[in-house]
Amino acid sequence: MFTMFSQFYKKNLHVVSRFNHTWTLPIGHKTPINIYNCVTRKNESFIVKNKEAVTWYTCGPTVYDSSHVGHASCYVRLDIIQRILKHHFGLNLVTCMNITDIDDKIIKKAYEMKTDFRTLASTYEKEFWSDLAMLKIPMPDLVLSVTEHVPIIIDFIQQLEDKEVAYKAQDNSVYFDITKSPHKPGKLQNITDSPPEASNPFKKSKADFALWKSVKNENEPSFDSPWGKGRPGWHIECSALASLMFGSNIDIHAGGLDLRFPHHENEEIQSSSFHSNNQWVNYWIHTGHLHLKDSVKMSKSLKNTVSIQDMLKQTKTDVFRMACVKSRYSSAMEYSPDLLQTSSNTLDLYKNLFRSILDVKKGLIKPSLNNQVINELLTKSTIEIHEAFCDDFNTPQVLKCLDSVASTVNSIIYSSATSSTSKDIYLLLALNNLVSDTLNLFGIDLSDLSDSVKNEDFSEFMDILVGFRQDVRQIGLTNKDKNLLSLCDRLRDDLKKTGLIVKDYGKISSWNK
User: What are the residue boundaries of the tRNA synthetases class I catalytic domain, all occurrences included (predicted)?
Assistant: First the structure.
């Protein structure tokens, strides 16, 4: 009887087992999204406990140096997913991030620079937020620094000690005892796929990990604790701070793929032990690595990084965001001039689409519009975009759909007879809105292509210049004067280099930014 009940219970609660690790489908609001689950190794239905308050925790930076493009790709991709969840699926997302402002790397760098570790960490934290602002990534709703919450972390460790899953070793550090915990490594990632850790003679087991690290010398920055002076271990920071804000169960926990093991793995183990449950995080989201063209991962340890500030001197934020959209968030991304150029070309495709539709709106182009064809394209594209977002946030598929819209609309505008009236263009404008709104979900705003021009004097000047060119060009066409036509073409090409686009429609010319 018990066996039958157990089977019924598991079937209805969707409990998935893999190598003695279980994952249970949450109870709450079912979204139409299927999201990759690193525990079950397949896509699962995305269910949130409460659509009006969805909890999201992101591992923040260790602030000892400038952030690089690898960090940018991670945080931009996560920002795009957050925007999709908020603005496409209507979820009220509450986001939290930690700042690791005490760490071996921070202490070492501060010693080398002969400055206080707090000053160093504060400097690079400010730079981090500045970098994110330039990437158009808003600050999380909650930001928690480690040094401001050491008592909370100490209490977390003490409770693990009370549960007899932590011990103080002879080096006065405190370690998590993996042999005493019901939760074992390998839930998020196969351990055979993971790099071995350096041996530590003070640990009872190789898989044990530090919760509290004792000081190595008297001059080292430290905090008082029941175990002596020291500082928190890396993994315990996120567990304590995320639990402080979101409690015993979190909807989403996110970070780069390199954090899945050991950081996230150990977070899940110690947090489940702390809360006495089997599932601290319902869904883990991991972004793929950013590689250089030779397939080498970009990292500070390899000393092959490009800072975010240096990258943005070479390209625009929208171009980089488009580069992030072009691949699945979980896939590796190859950073290269070719990628940036391709992304810039994609943006130009959409800019040209908006300019063409704007010219139709102004009456400069009067194509013959088949409303049935346009309506079918609008309906089909809306459905396909939604389905792509439901498929684990498949942004490359969304771009494929937008590219098809741009190609089809341009074909309609430039390949048909001139016979439309203003009432025929509303579906065309609806397509314009669909593409624009979708790009806004990616944090890409091309609204500067609208009718309004902020500098009216400049607008008047351009109207005069383009009008004069139009008259000269008409004389050239009438007299078949190649020299005049060549001068008109050269002026058009020179203006294009400054971002000003001049287009000719028979005897009429127009311009756009």
Answer: 50-343
The order of strands in the sheet holding 166-168 is 166-168, 174-176, 209-214, 230-232
Q: Are 269 and 190 in contact (CB under 8 A)?
A: no
CA 470 to chain centre: 45
d(CA 71, CA 259): 12
Q: Burial-class residue 309 by CB neighbours within 10 Å (0-12, 13-18, 19+).
A: middle
Long-range contacts of 386-389 (CB under 8 A, 24+ apart): 386/32, 386/88, 389/33, 389/84, 389/88, 389/89
Query: What's the CA gap between 182 and 272, in Å, rounded?
Result: 9
**Cβ of 73: how many Cβ atoms within 10 Å?**
27
Mean pLDDT of each 10-residue bin along the chain, 513 residues long: 37 60 94 97 97 97 95 98 98 98 95 96 97 97 98 98 97 96 91 60 93 92 96 97 98 97 96 97 97 68 80 94 97 93 96 91 84 93 98 98 95 69 79 97 82 55 86 89 90 86 84 80
Q: Nearest-5° angle of CA 235, CA 277, CA 208?
A: 35
Name the burial class of residue 184, with classes exposed (0-12), middle (13-18) and buried (19+) by CB atoms within 10 angstroms of its CB: middle
Q: What is the pLDDT of residues 324-348, one digit of tens each?
A: 999 999 999 999 999 999 999 999 9
User: Which of 462, 457, 450, 456 has the alpha carbon at shortest distance from 491?
Assistant: 462
Single-letter amino acid, residue 272: S
Kindly report whether the global pTM for this prediction surpasses the value 0.90. Answer: no
Domains of the chain (ranges, CATH numbers): 2-334 (3.40.50.620), 344-447 (1.20.120), 456-512 (no CATH)
